[in-house]
Amino acid sequence: MELSEAIRGRRATRQFAQTPVAKPALLELIDAAIQAPSAINAQPWEFTVIQNRTHLDRIAASSKAYMLTAMEHSAAPQHLRDLLKNPDFDIFYHAPALIVISAKSGDWAVEDAALAAQNLMLAAYAKGLGTCWIGFAQRWLETDEGKRSIELPPGIQPVAPIIVGYPAGPMPPVPRNQPRVRWFD
Asked: Whole-angstrom distance between the N-terminal and C-terminal Cα of the chain?
C-alpha cells in the first residue's frame, strides 16, 4: 500500500470483528510507532498492550465514571453525557486490543507520543486493521489510579489510548474541509 493511500484511507474504526489480533501483528505496529521522529531524538515512548477483556472492561467502566463526573460542571455536549450514561456503550467499541502509548514526562512528551500514534495507526490500516484514539479513556488513565491500572512507573504519562482490531466492515470516507493556509512568498 502506498503511504498516500493509507493517509487518505485511514478512518477511526468503531465497529470491530471479534477476531483477536495476533501478538506479532501488534508488535509490528509498535515497531512502526517507534520509527516516528521525536524531539532531540529522545524516543520517550512506552507501550502497554491490553487484550484481556476483563481488564479492558474495568478501564472502560472507570473511564466512563470519571468522565461523567468531570462533565457535571462543564459545557460538554449533552449527547456525550447521554452516550456515557448508556450502560451498553463500550468506550472501546468491543475492540480486541488496546495499546496505550505513554511517554517520559517532559516538554515534548505529548507531541512525541502523538507522532508515534500516527505511525501506529497508519501501519494498522496498511495491515487491514482498524484503530481509534479513545479520548474518553485518556483523562482517567492520567490519574494515579489509571496509571496504576496499566502499571506505569513514576515519571511516565499516558498519552494515546488506541484501540486496535479488524474492522467489522468498510469505513466510509469522511469529507475533509479545505485547508486554511497562510502563505508568505
From this structure: 35
Q: Strand order in 130-133's β-sheet? A: 45-50, 97-104, 156-165, 130-133
Q: Is the pLDDT of residue 153 over 90?
A: yes
Grid cell locating 70: 468531570
* Prediction pTM value: 0.94
The DSSP code for 95 is -
Residue 181 lies in a domain: no
CATH number at residue 71: 3.40.109.10
Strand-pair partners of 49 = 99
Report CA 164 to chain centroid distance, whole Å. Answer: 8
- Domains contained in the chain, number: 1
State whether the Cα torsion 14-19-22-25 is positive or negative.
negative
pLDDT tens column, 25-84: 999 999 999 999 999 999 999 999 999 999 999 999 999 999 989 888 888 888 888 899
* % of the chain beyond a pLDDT of 70: 100
- Report the interhelical angle of 78-85 vs 53-71 (nearest 10°): 140
